[in-house]
Amino acid sequence: MITPNFLVQNLDLTINGTHGSIVSYEPGKTAAIGATLSYKWFVGSLYYSVYNEFNSGLEEKSKYFDFRFNFSRRRGALDLYFQFYKGFSVKELPKSNDGNLLELANPNLDLFSGGANFYYSLNPKHSVQSVYKYNELQSRSSGSLLAGVSQNYTQISFTNSIFPDDIVDDLQILGEENDGKFIAVIPTIGYQYNFIKNKFNISPTAFGGLGIQYQDYESAAKGDFQGFNRSVKYGFNLPVGINNPNNYYGIVTRYEKSIFYLERGIDIENEQYSIKAYLGIRF
Hints:
Shape: globular
Number of strands: 15
Order of helices and strands: EEEEEEEHEHEHEEEEEE
Strand content: over 45%
Distance between the termini: 8 Å
């Protein structure tokens, strides 16, 4: 099956320090078009941004690429994702900033995020595959606890320092390419309910987990840091669709938030939400 998709996506990147929330970054709100190719247990999607809205602090419009792959059986599924944002804006500055903060909080960031999500239904009568694919149908409504694990690799590249404590103390990293790397492994638990009424289905899913991450980043105030700390991830998905014999269509709403806890009371919050519309025709 080949399915055209339209994706509206937004991401907020907030970095909190000991001085509190100093600055938030976001790429320009972006919409992307793409296509999904599925065959039996394999699903692959590619999206490319075609619409960009950006704020005054942005040096260039956001570019967004998204690759997603899904492998599933009846009770288990594996999602692979690779996302790349280029071009951020400063979303929010403290009201008491002295006018130089915008320059110090340089929005010249690149963000890459990739990883895998595995989840398994603990109810043998519940079909995970029927929630996201229409090549298997579930005869009646059911729900199940989901056990899984989430692995994520995030890399943030920047020129000036992005850390609030550096910015407040007027410490900068200028003229050099720097980056922060975060590798997280998070066991998760969730719940999914697949409600079916004739050809209509709605399948809310919620999940959350606490895990460990390896960090490698640079800060003018603290120097290079390498070590381990905790990480948190939670979110929900809401697929809603109509399944007919010759076609199917619907939307999938997704919200996810990851928190990387750093040393000395600093954390990076990565918040992402999207709405995907799809239409499939069977031949």
